[in-house]
Amino acid sequence: MNILVTGANGQLGNELRLLAKKSQHTFLFTDVSELNICVPEAVNLFFKINNINACINCAAYTAVDKAETEQELAYAINVTGPENLAKACAANNAVMVQVSTDFVFNGTSSIPYTEDVQIDPLSIYGKTKAEAEQLVLTLNSKTFVIRTAWLYSTFGGNFVKTMLRLGNERPELGVIFDQVGTPTYAADLANAILFMLNKDNPQYGIYHYSNEGVASWFDFAKAIFEYGNLTPKVKSILTSDYPTPAKRPHFSVMDKKKIKKEFGIEIPYWKDSLKTCLELI
């Protein structure tokens, strides 16, 4: 299988690079310099030349707050790009994997979100990702939409690395405790995606994947400091104490029964995966 990975220089793309070294498949890793997914002619030509059988779209505009003012750019990368990829996948009978987000939910639930819950994004970022979900599912019948949350890894910038830096720089810091979700180690997500692509006759559609368990950003930070042997004083603060341009869901824990039932995937507990990542960092 020839697998195209877009946005390959990001966290998930880099984790897929590591897995590709041990895979029987052929991977083509691209970022914007190799393939601009916003240009349909470029996408169609790439698929034709390289005989693409599957596409994992890791490319995304993820600057949640900047998206509120850079709406045109956010829509181009998060909506037009996936649309072009989905059309190319359909024309080439290829499987598409569209990585989405917990930001498609409004965060008012008190129980974990299942895949069939009505989405209601609060931010421009969430709205672009929600629109992309509907487009790719409509345009290509062989599509997986995988919603994930709170992604971190040894690569790039993320909450874990930010906390490690601040924990070394400051004796005290405040972290939000009234936003609740589940951290996700990008290496675990990458493994799950390849597992899904390797299954014969799968059920396509929307799936949720994050690590197991529940945490607030405060809980997440406390665990990072504990396992990273750092001792700053951590104060819990409210979202209202730290206003941002984009609204975020207060509760975005996702139910993962569907992906576990369909693919038999075992999902690690978030603290166990955090320990694994910190050992590598």
From TrEMBL:
It holds the Pfam family RmlD_sub_bind. One of its GO terms (molecular function) is dTDP-4-dehydrorhamnose reductase activity. GO terms for biological process: dTDP-rhamnose biosynthetic process. Residues 1-279 form the RmlD-like substrate binding domain. It is an enzyme of class 1 (oxidoreductase). It catalyses: dTDP-beta-L-rhamnose + NADP(+) = dTDP-4-dehydro-beta-L-rhamnose + NADPH + H(+). Its EC number is 1.1.1.133. Keywords: NADP, Oxidoreductase. It comes from the Bacteria. Catalyzes the reduction of dTDP-6-deoxy-L-lyxo-4-hexulose to yield dTDP-L-rhamnose. Belongs to the dTDP-4-dehydrorhamnose reductase family. This is dTDP-4-dehydrorhamnose reductase.
